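Reviewer 2 asked us to include a model.

Predict the structure of this chain.
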Amino acid sequence: MAGMAEQKTIELALQGGGAHGAFTWGVLDRLLADERIRIEGLSGTSAGAMNAVVLADGLERGGREGGSKALASFWRAVSDAARFSPVQRTPLDVFMGRWSLDYSPGYMMMDMLTRMVSPYEMNPLDANPLRDIVAAQVDFDRVNRCRSAKVFVTATNVETGKARIFRQPELSVDTIMASACLPFLYKAVEIDGGYYWDGGYMGNPALYPLVDECDARDLIIVQINPFFRKGPPRSAPDITNRLNEITFNSSLIKELRMIALFKQLIEAEGLEHERYRDMLIHRIHAADDLEHLRVSSKLNAEWDFLRYLHDIGWRTTEDWLDRNFDKLGRESTFDLDILFDDSFRPLDLSRGKRQGKSPSVQPKQVGPKQAEKKS
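Predicted model (structure tokens):
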């Protein structure tokens, strides 16, 4: 593909989502296969953070091919480590082709215990198999000296409730475990005297480091947790699943809303803040393929399931590139207005009213030349 088109530089915001992070693996794999794309920055939380540091390690070691191999090796190691876990699909689930663990005795037992017993009592040694996998798969010296991609990892400070962004050269196994620390399963991770839980509570993932510290105009969100679902959930697992999605999308929605309002304010008032003015927002998300998956499937690390998710990510990204590559650097392909409901629409500052509502102030009179310019 080299030489066929200009190379375009992007930033990637990678959501967390347990085993569903294998979808992001497929997205990254497809992007690496396209030499027209250069990745400047990666902001990740939980599984997104793992994908980010694994990719940075691979890029530093062997370029695009090294990044692709590193991601495949990491997810294979995750699957291998889960083969002897008591949390497995039942034979009926396997026969029916269901990826969920809802009826797994191991999953049900773990779910019940985590609701009654804290990890400080149930897991006093703080055993975490993912820690061993990350430590074995990722050379953090390489990650921290990687210059081809900036990496930002989000964790939630337990004491202050604020997000902390870890970046090169301070990335380590501890920072990744902090970003992926589910408070019902693991003890809070201590770093520099602070205690941290999963970054998804305050940034899934954080966008502002990409806006403030990178130069690319195109910010692509790789989304795992859907914004919208039709109708209320009725079963207990579905309620838990939707609550999980809302919680882990809330900070992302707030950041996107602020970007939308800030861009409108800059354009309407002629303010000087070129970085926010020029940001173009995109999203890669396979709603039809991911929304049917149950929350329990985020703990399903079977290789067939991880490959299934990878292939969805690859196909989705290939389709996205076919439709949107030419728009990179020119226009946003994700309409931020969908994040505003009917009671709070983005301010239409050019007309002094909220879209879809009666004007709150009378619009200014526009002269003939201004009208011609507006049209």
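Residues 167 and 317 are 27 Å apart (CA to CA). Residues 343-375 have pLDDT under 50 and may be disordered. We have added this to the supplementary material.
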